[in-house]
Amino acid sequence: MVRVIADQFTALFGTDPVVHGLVGGLVIAGLNLLGASLVFVWRDPSERAMDGALGFAAGVMLAAAFTSLIIPGIETYSNGNPIPVLVGVALGAVFLDRSDVLVPHAHYLLSGRRRTDAANPSDDLPVDDERLAGVVLFILAITLHNVPEGLAVGVGFGSGDLSTAIPLMFAIGIQNIPEGLAVSVAAINAGLDRRFYAVFAGIRSGIVEIPLAVFGAYAVLTVSTLLPYAMGFAAGAMLFVIMDEIVPETHLKGHERVATLGTIFGAIVMLYLDISLG
Q1: What's the CA gap between 273 and 118, in Å, rounded?
Q2: What average pLDDT does the segment 166-174 reach?
Q3: In angstroms, what CA-CA distances link 226 with 55, 73, 159, 169, 175?
Q4: Residue 11: is it exposed, middle or buried by C-beta count within 10 angstroms (0-12/13-18/19+)?
Q5: Which of 27, 85, 104, 178 could lock onto 119 through a cystine, CB 3.0 to 4.6 A?
Q6: Percent of the chain whose predicted confidence (pLDDT) is above 70
Q7: For residues 128-155, b (16+ Cβ closer than 10 Å) or e, as one string?
Q8: 3-class SS of residue 252
Q9: pTM exceeds 0.90, yes or no
């Protein structure tokens, strides 16, 4: 199956990995927009449903970090040497950790519950309107946390291995759907217009993935020695988002079991994609 899909992909988009990265970025950003637009038909998703959906997204990202980034990075692109990939994992986690000092945790902006290591909206942004500050900060936080997703897709296509890159693109695209929905729900809960922000929030939060996917593909294509480090960086950043943001958020409202089952189901879906397509 993977040969057929890869042949169709190259027939449509050629063989340039940078073009492939652009296509991958457009796909995952489009699915983010699709998720944001779900508020048109699913106008008031329950907290239980949102926790299950975000748990599913976490499961997909968790499996993808290992099957599409860490393992191939070590086995295929580091000749079995784990050090470059593990260095990248550490750098990705540190990058997200330091970035969260400047931009508040999405956790706070979604739930309203402040963590001691989150930035302070009233102190850190010159915006007087508290509600507007919250929306601005939410967009910044989600944009930041989409960085590893766009980079991961670009790095995957930059490697030239479509059997890894295409399942990774589908995995991140699938998990972008509940993430995009969460962006829209948060914007609506802030009291802003449903129709406008369902579109605006989805585009704004997902559009950063397009240039990052192109950059990731170009960077590893130009400097091939960066590939295992870049794969590890993307994986480390994704793992940080899962453990620092998604899991705590989905376990705060009494729906831990639903979120856990969603995570397991998401991991199953990604593993199936990885095996059946790759």
Answers
A1: 36
A2: 88
A3: 31, 11, 10, 20, 26
A4: exposed
A5: 104
A6: 76
A7: eeeeebbbebbbbbbbbbbbbbbbbbbb
A8: coil
A9: no
